[in-house]
UniProtKB/TrEMBL annotation:
Pfam families: DUF1697 (PF08002). The lineage of its organism: Bacteria, Pseudomonadati, Myxococcota, Myxococcia, Myxococcales. It comes from Archangium gephyra. It comes from the Bacteria. This is Uncharacterized protein (DUF1697 family). InterPro entries: DUF1697.
Length: 179
């Protein structure tokens, strides 16, 4: 059995793509997933599944969401161990002290290095960011809400599907996965 974290992109934001968490949990249990739990209303689910191939699980969940809710939602998956590695690999100090100023953008796959290199760090200071594998770690000392960098990292510029979570949510998801 594999323990997964599903990060749904762009649901329950501004009244769009409404997905009630109780309905999402029921949908996932209907797919045969067990130990299903959700965190917040922003599309964070932790579950256990017999399928060991994350790509298959993600596609299955995306298809079920379309059938149940009538709209497409990108799902970015990480295993429990991958999420733990994401936390340990954070290259930016201070996340524990100011978790609301830190964001991890989870990518569906590693971005093209040429595309990523087009994001000029100097243009977004004092915000800073680092790419590590399929995650972009970012620190926003003046807050995420007004940051141009947060918009860039969450967009389609890199040619992969991004979905971001603040540091507090990332650590809570690991705790939830550990039950």
């Amino acid at each position: 059995m594999a323990r997964y974290i599903a990060l749904l992109r762009g649901i329950n934001v501004g009244g769009n793509k409404k997905v009630p968490m109780a309905q999402l949990r029921a949908l996932m249990e209907g797919l045969g997933y067990t130990e299903v739990a959700t965190l917040l209303q922003s599309g964070n689910a932790v579950f256990t599944c017999k399928e060991k191939n994350p790509a298959k699980v993600g596609k299955q969940l995306e298809a079920a969401i379309v059938k149940e809710f009538g709209f497409e939602v990108a799902v970015v998956l990480r295993t429990r161990d991958e999420l733990e590695a994401v936390i340990k690999a954070n290259p930016l100090p201070g996340a524990e002290d100011a978790p609301s100023q830190f964001l991890v953008t989870f990518l569906s796959e590693e971005p093209d290095p040429k595309r990523f290199a087009q994001i000029d760090p100097a243009a977004y200071q004092p915000d800073e960011f680092r790419l590590v594998g399929r995650e972009i770690y970012a620190r926003f000392p003046q807050g995420i809400g007004n940051s141009k960098l947060a918009t860039v990292l969450g967009g389609t510029r890199l040619g992969v599907t991004p979905t971001a979570r603040n540091w507090s949510t990332v650590t809570k998801l690991l705790a939830l996965a550990d039950g």
